[in-house]
Amino acid sequence: MTERVQVNAAEGETKWPSWTTQGATTYAAAGVDTAEGARAVDAIKDAVHRTYRSEVRGDIGGFGGLFSAAAAKDMTDPILVSGTDGVGTKIQLAKLAHKHDTVGIDLVAMCVNDILATGAEPLFFLDYIAVGKLKSEAVAEIVSGVADGCQMSGCALIGGEMAEHPGVMDPDEYDLSGFCVGLVDRPKMLDPESVKVGDVLIGLASSGLHSNGYSLARKVCVEGKTTYELNLEQPLLNGQSVLEALLTPTRIYVKQVLNVLEQVPGAVHSLAHITGGGITENLNRALSSSVDAQVEVGTWTMPPIIPWVCKAARLDETEALKTFNMGVGMILIVDPDQADAVKQALTEQGETVFTVGHIVEGTGEVTYQNKEQLFAGCGQEKEATDE
Question: What is the pLDDT of residue 42?
């Protein structure tokens, strides 16, 4: 029979059920350490504070992040742009290398580069960290990388969540997701419908695979290899090890592109962030239905880890171009009369810039010229497949 709580109204005493004195199971005993969570919050405060913009109100630890929208009042038609993403299985390499800060940069990059495609300025960012067992030092390392990414893109880290999942995730497991909000005035939005025949495709160099295709990369380059092998310096990777090259963080293009939009107004018609699906399945998203993007293969160079992985996987050119960014992390579709000014402005900001093609009449597709030149000159054909 269920015991009930009895209250003696005359004496003001409560008689508690007997089971409360028989070895109670606390939240900590169930695997959730709230004290360690508090230590983790303290450990990340400095990293969070260095991302703050003047619009941030309040501080971390509240029930919601606060950010002033006062700047929107001067816009004709302010549009909020949001994006969310994760890092995917690249996290497995971070755990293998015991290096967790660079995936924080990846997390921010995948979100802010996406909303940049509309011409929006990222304003603020929130992260979600799910862990099997919360360790404040490890969380601080991850959040330090998130803060680095926020500083690179000029957005504020105003909140997040650290969730401990005992019994669901192994103690050393973790996963990341992020969410950002940006702002753009509608008259200044980048619009695929503004792309016209003759526009120039300007590509910005990637730093490597960024954060896409890692299930394939791990399968062909990591599985079955010892930690010793993965950490060997490789001449074909410019002296990096495979693990180092694969952990290179995603490039963040926000400040450079926003500066160009301001310096050369009206020059950029549309923009594609080259992520999962490669050039083939991302550049078409920046096109209207009446034009094609004709990409001239061989007009750019790629970080050596990209052909290394492609050759290890024995991908042909078609498959490679729809799997990885192939050395181009972002493509701007630009008015031909202003293409030189855009390239100069980007170069002055430290970007490696390529003219990778142009716009022709079509039906909203991506086509290629000289596709057989994709791996020409990489010098890895035999070596990478033999690894």
Answer: 79
